[in-house]
Amino acid sequence: MTSAHQPGHQSEVTLRVNGKPHTLRVDHRRVLLDLLREELDLTGSKKGCDHGQCGACTVLVDGRRMNSCLLLAVTLDGSDITTVEGLGGDGEDPHPLQRAFLDRDAFQCGYCTPGQLCSAIGMLAEAAAGHPSHVTDPAAPSGRPVPLDRTEIRERMSGNLCRCGAYPRIVEAIEDVIP
C-alpha cells in the first residue's frame, strides 16, 4: 500500500497569493481552496457545495475568477492568486467594492460574500475587456467594453448563489463601483 504523502504524489509549486510568494510542497490531489484555507490560513474563501456550483469559493487566478474548489493546486504553479483577504491590497482601506457591499448592506449571513466580491471584480474586468455574456446584445461591437446594466450584472453573477437572498443589494453595490 502506498502512502498519499510519498514524494511521488507531491510537487513543489510557487504561488503568489495576495502579492506574497509561497513555495509549497503540494499533494497532486489537493485543491486550491483547501490549500488556501488549511496551509495558508486564508479562510475567507468558503467551501459551499464543493462541486463548483455555488461560487462561495471564488478567487481570482491571474485576474480571472475561478472556483477554487475545482482547481488542483499543483496545476497553478507560477500563478497569481487573489483572495478576499487581498482585495484591499496592503492598506487598511477596503477595496471600493467591499466598501460598496458594506454601504449597501449587500450581505446577510456573509458566507457567500467573499466569493461574491471576487466574482464581481472578475466580472467587471471581463466586461471592461469586452467579453460578452449570454445577454449581451449580439449587435454590440466585439472587443469593446460591455455596458453593465442590471440584466448584465445579474447574468454575469449568476454563478454565485446567496442563500439569504441579498441579490438586489449585491447588484446595487456592483452598480456603485461601475466606472
UniProtKB/TrEMBL annotation:
<dbReference type="InterPro" id="IPR052914">
    <property type="entry name" value="Aldehyde_Oxdr_Iron-Sulfur"/>
</dbReference>
<dbReference type="InterPro" id="IPR002888">
    <property type="entry name" value="2Fe-2S-bd"/>
</dbReference>
<dbReference type="Pfam" id="PF01799">
    <property type="entry name" value="Fer2_2"/>
</dbReference>
<dbReference type="InterPro" id="IPR012675">
    <property type="entry name" value="Beta-grasp_dom_sf"/>
</dbReference>
<keyword id="KW-0560">Oxidoreductase</keyword>
<keyword id="KW-0408">Iron</keyword>
<feature type="domain" description="2Fe-2S ferredoxin-type">
    <location>
        <begin position="11"/>
        <end position="87"/>
    </location>
</feature>
<dbReference type="InterPro" id="IPR036884">
    <property type="entry name" value="2Fe-2S-bd_dom_sf"/>
</dbReference>
<dbReference type="InterPro" id="IPR036010">
    <property type="entry name" value="2Fe-2S_ferredoxin-like_sf"/>
</dbReference>
<dbReference type="InterPro" id="IPR006058">
    <property type="entry name" value="2Fe2S_fd_BS"/>
</dbReference>
<dbReference type="InterPro" id="IPR001041">
    <property type="entry name" value="2Fe-2S_ferredoxin-type"/>
</dbReference>
<dbReference type="Pfam" id="PF00111">
    <property type="entry name" value="Fer2"/>
</dbReference>
<keyword id="KW-0479">Metal-binding</keyword>
<protein>
    <submittedName>
        <fullName>2Fe-2S iron-sulfur cluster-binding protein</fullName>
    </submittedName>
</protein>
